[in-house]
Write a structure and sequence with these properties.
By secondary structure, the chain is α+β, with helices and mostly antiparallel strands. It has two domains: about 5-50, Uridine Diphospho-n-acetylenolpyruvylglucosamine Reductase, domain 2 (2-Layer Sandwich), CATH 3.30.43.10; about 60-265, Uridine Diphospho-n-acetylenolpyruvylglucosamine Reductase, domain 3, CATH 3.30.465.10. The chain contains twelve helices and 14 strands. A five-stranded antiparallel β-sheet has the order 4-5-10-6-7. A hairpin with a 6-residue loop joins strand 11 and strand 12. The protein is globular. The N and C termini lie far apart (about 50 Å). Bound molecules: flavin-adenine dinucleotide.
Length: about 270
C-alpha cells in the first residue's frame, strides 16, 4: 500500500469536504477497496471512511418502497425482518454474497458504487427498478449502471440510500463461482402491476443488463414456458476460465426459468 491520510467524518457535509481533496476515495466496508490498495491497483491520497457518517444506515419501509442506507452491511440486509417481509428475494440475495467475513463488512452502497460485473445487488436494483439516492440527486437504476466497474456517479457523489419499489413477487437465482461466490450468472426476476423486469449479472461484457425479450414474454404470460425459446446472444457475454459465453447464455435461460418457477410456487 502507498501512504494515505485517513479521515473519519461524522457527517455528510464533512465527508463531502474531504472528498473534494485531490485523489480522495470513500471507504465503506473496504472489501473491494482495501485489497485493491494492497495490490497497489489503487493509491488514493485521502481515504474518507463513511462508517461514522450519520444517516447512512437503517432499513425502513416507506409506503410502497423499501429504503436501505448505503452503509448497511450485507449481513444486516440478509437478517432484516423488514427486508424479508417486503422483498424476501433481496434478503436471500444478500445471504448469498461472499462469506460471513465479507457479509459482515461489505455494504450495499460500496457494492453498487463499485459495480463489479459479477456482483449481486446490481441485478436486484435493475430488476426492481430501484432508485439510487446520493448527496446530490436521485438516479434510476437504468441510468446508474454504465459499464464494467462504471456508474453514473460523479467524483464528488456519495451514495446515501437505495430505494426499492416493493414488487408483487420476485426471485433471484445465482450460479456462484465456487470460491468467491460471485455470480458466474445471476438472474433476478421481478413481477409487478406494470409488468415484469428481468436482470442478469455475472455474464455481460458491459456489466449488468436487462432482457427485454423475456420481459415482454413474461408480461404476456407469466410462465417458465414463456421464456423457454428465448436465446441470449453469446457475442455480448463474458468468456473466461470459469465459463464460456455460450455456457453463460445457456445458464441465463435455465436460471430465468427457475426464477419464474420459484415465483409461481410462492403464495
Ligand atoms: C472474498 C470476497 C468475496 C465476495 N463475494 C461477493 C459476492 O458473492 N457477491 C457480491 O455481490 N460481492 C461480493 N464481494 C464484494 C463485496 O460485496 C464488497 O462488499 C463490495 O464489492 C464492496 O463493498 P464495500 O462496502 O466493501 O466497499 P469498499 O470496498 O469500501 O468500496 C468499494 C468502492 O466503492 C466506493 N464507495 C463505497 N461506498 C460508497 C458510497 N456510499 N458512495 C459512493 N462510493 C462509494 C469506494 O470508494 C470504492 O471505490 C466479495 C468480496 C470479497 C473480498
Amino acid at each position: 500500500m502507498y501512504d494515505f491520510s485517513f479521515h473519519r467524518p461524522a457527517d455528510l457535509a464533512s465527508a463531502e469536504g474531504y472528498l473534494k481533496a485531490a485523489e480522495a476515495k470513500l471507504l465503506a466496508g473496504g472489501q473491494t477497496l482495501i485489497p485493491t490498495m494492497k495490490q497497489r491497483l489503487a493509491a488514493p491520497k485521502h481515504l474518507v471512511d463513511l462508517s461514522n457518517v450519520a444517516g447512512l444506515t437503517g432499513i425502513e419501509r416507506k409506503g410502497r418502497n423499501l429504503v436501505i442506507g448505503a452503509m448497511t452491511r450485507h449481513a444486516e440486509v440478509a437478517g432484516s425482518g423488514v427486508v424479508n417481509k417486503a422483498i424476501p428475494a433481496l434478503g436471500l440475495l444478500a445471504e448469498g454474497i461472499g462469506d460471513p467475513a465479507v457479509r459482515n463488512r461489505g455494504t450495499i452502497g460500496g457494492s453498487l458504487a463499485n459495480n463489479d460485473p459479477s456482483a449481486d445487488y446490481p441485478a436486484a436494483c435493475l430488476a426492481l427498478d430501484a432508485t439510487i439516492i446520493t448527496n446530490k440527486r436521485e438516479i434510476g437504476a437504468d441510468e446508474f449502471f454504465t459499464g464494467l466497474f462504471e456508474t453514473a456517479l460523479g467524483a464528488d457523489e456519495i451514495v446515501t440510500r437505495v430505494s426499492f419499489p416493493v414488487p408483487i413477487k420476485a426471485a433471484y437465482l445465482k450460479f456462484p463461482n465456487p470460491a468467491s461466490r460471485y455470480a458466474l450468472v445471476g438472474v433476478f426476476v421481478a413481477k409487478d402491476t406494470d409488468g415484469v423486469r428481468v436482470a442478469v449479472t455475472g455474464a455481460g461484457e458491459s456489466g449488468v443488463f436487462r432482457v427485454p425479450a423475456m420481459e415482454r414474454a413474461l408480461s404476456k404470460k407469466f410462465s417458465a414456458k414463456a421464456v423457454e425459446g428465448i436465446k441470449i446472444d453469446p457475442s455480448t457475454l463474458i468468456s473466461d476460465i470459469h465459463g464460456s459465453a455460450a455456457y453463460r447464455a445457456h445458464l441465463v435461460g435455465v436460471l430465468a426459468r427457475r426464477a419464474v418457477e420459484t415465483i409461481a410456487k410462492t403464495k
